[in-house]
Specification:
Low-confidence stretches: 1-19, 214-226
Number of helices: 1
Distance between the termini: 34 Å
Structural class: mainly beta
Shape: globular
Strand order of the largest sheet: 1-14-3-4-11
Strand content: 15-25%
């Protein structure tokens, strides 16, 4: 498949290809559920499995970013034929700043291996931009082994918050860049998986480079979606500010830089950058009604018109554990 959207929007989840060595977390195989809907996962092998999930985010309301989704992680023991029902909530639609944006849908995992109480990631509540109100982050509930809540924005004119992650609760920005799992943005570049962002350039990750301001340098930096296995593997740089730039004597508005998993996108005088999943979306100075945030990230804010669409939920199921 050519890109992340095609992969996540396939009709049914597909089994990850067996590689020459197990994944970083000790499992050979991984199934991903990233399109809103209800799925049945059936155990093909007895033993332990590991679930990681990020809940759905709400849409932005005018220039106020939406709230982000929660994170949960659980290890279960399954028998052959055991089934899990996995509900993937949809991200909420954005609105103009006098109208309440749409909340994110609820997400859950249930079935015999889980027990009587489902593993739930409640979707983030909608927000109204004028005045700022109604912001409630996504919240986990049920017998997760590890879980954190998302983040909310209580002021306008910022990038959207990152989802919660294995490293902690969702984070928010004070600047116009999107927040990453490693910190928010105080300027117009996006935070990374490991660091907050300052100024117009995206923050660098552990090894990944951050985006640099300029028309020719707002592309994806760091990892692509397929480069990570467990969410703890993420190492992505933030996207850069898409500024007014002169190219051959002509003024051009560059879009904000996109970002890899767990890193925030850059703000822009046109359309802001988004993360592939987990990282917040930068603020757009134009209408962001059609701009969808990466999984779990709050919908981006827009100076003019509607806020952006919140990120959908996503679940990862790891199975076929390495024998001890």
């Amino acid at each position: 498949m050519s890109n992340l959207s095609d992969f996540l929007n396939r009709p049914q989840p597909q089994k990850a290809a067996r590689i020459g060595a197990p994944g970083s977390n000790g499992y050979w195989r991984r199934d991903i559920f990233g399109k809103p809907g209800t799925y049945i996962w059936k155990a093909q092998k007895a033993g332990k499995i590991k679930i990681q999930g990020i809940g759905a985010a709400s849409g932005g309301s005018g220039d106020v970013a939406g709230a982000s989704g929660a994170f949960g992680e659980k290890t279960l023991t399954v028998a052959v034929g055991d089934q899990l029902a996995i509900v993937v909530g949809a991200g909420g639609a954005g609105s103009i700043n006098t109208v309440l944006s749409t909340p994110g849908g609820s997400s859950s995992v249930s079935g015999t291996p889980v027990g009587g109480t489902p593993l739930t990631l409640a979707g983030a509540a909608g927000v109204t931009g004028s005045p700022v109100s109604g912001t409630i982050a996504g919240v986990p509930s049920g017998p997760w082994d590890l879980s954190y809540s998302g983040a909310v924005m209580t002021v306008n004119n910022t990038g959207s918050p990152s989802s919660a992650s294995p490293f902690g609760p969702g984070l928010k920005s004070t600047g116009q860049g999107g927040a990453g799992w490693g910190g928010g943005a105080s300027g117009q570049g996006g935070g990374s998986t490991h660091r907050p962002a300052v100024g117009t350039n995206g923050a660098r990750g552990l090894f990944a480079l951050g985006g640099r301001e300029g028309l020719k340098e707002v592309e994806l930096h760091g990892q692509t979606y397929g480069d990570i296995w467990d969410l703890r593997d993420a190492d992505s740089g933030g996207g850069a500010w898409g500024s007014w730039t002169r190219d051959s004597g002509t003024a051009v508005t560059a879009n904000g830089g996109t970002a890899g998993p767990g890193a925030g996108g850059g703000a822009s005088a046109a359309i802001a950058g988004a993360s592939s999943f987990g990282g917040g979306t930068g603020k757009s100075l134009s209408n962001a009604a059609d701009l969808k945030s990466g999984s779990g990230a709050g919908g981006g804010g827009a100076q003019n018109g509607s806020g952006g669409i919140g990120g959908d939920a996503i679940f990862f199921v790891f199975w076929d554990e390495v024998a001890e």
